[in-house]
Design a protein that fits this description.
There is one protein chain. The chain is α+β, with helices and mostly antiparallel strands. It contains five helices and seven strands. Helix 3 crosses helix 4. Bound molecules: magnesium ion. The site of magnesium ion (MG) has 5 residues, from strand 1 and helix 1. Magnesium ion (MG) binds next to strand 1 and helix 1.
């Protein structure tokens, strides 16, 4: 499983699920701050028994500054292949008060499928508001949660 949140600020592009969404604010962070892709990366790495996205891509490293998070997702897929694993499915929820996420889900699935080298019907993406509650409800940030199932050889991780 993976969870991520980034603050919404003026003067940044809003990129979620690898898709740029028109909005008056964008997510702030070292990379493109794509909270949905970061949650999925952590879900995939976690299913492999690996450590989190920050271990692979430290936010103190200038080479990841403003980078598209599809780069991180591709690396997660590379780690699955290295472990002779197979992604069974990925499921995610975006929690955002606004903008509306629904119209962009198809494009997000296409981006994620391409980066993970799986089919779009192996990917679930849902979106919900936070019923105006808390920092998400006030539009101060966007959160995302994801789970990934991966089939691995029985001797995975044994030395
Ligand atoms: Mg993040």
């Amino acid at each position: 499983m993976g969870y991520d949140v980034h603050p919404l600020v003026s003067g940044r592009r809003l990129v979620l699920g690898g898709v740029e969404i028109p909005h008056d604010k964008g997510l702030d962070g070292h990379s493109d701050a794509d909270a949905l892709l970061h949650a999925i990366v952590d879900a995939v790495l976690g299913a492999l028994g690996e450590r989190d996205i920050g271990t692979f891509f430290p936010n103190t490293d200038p080479q990841w500054k403003n980078v598209a998070s599809t780069v991180f997702l591709r690396e997660a897929a590379r780690q699955v292949a290295r472990c002779h694993g197979r992604i069974i499915n990925v499921d995610a929820t975006v929690i955002a008060q606004e903008p509306k996420i629904g119209p962009h889900i198809g494009a997000m699935k296409a981006q994620i499928a391409e980066a993970l080298n799986i089919r779009t019907n192996q990917i679930g993406i849902k979106a919900t508001t936070n019923e105006m509650l808390g920092f998400v409800g006030r539009g101060e940030g966007i959160a995302a949660m994801a789970v990934a199932s991966i089939e691995l050889p029985e001797d995975h991780g044994q030395s």
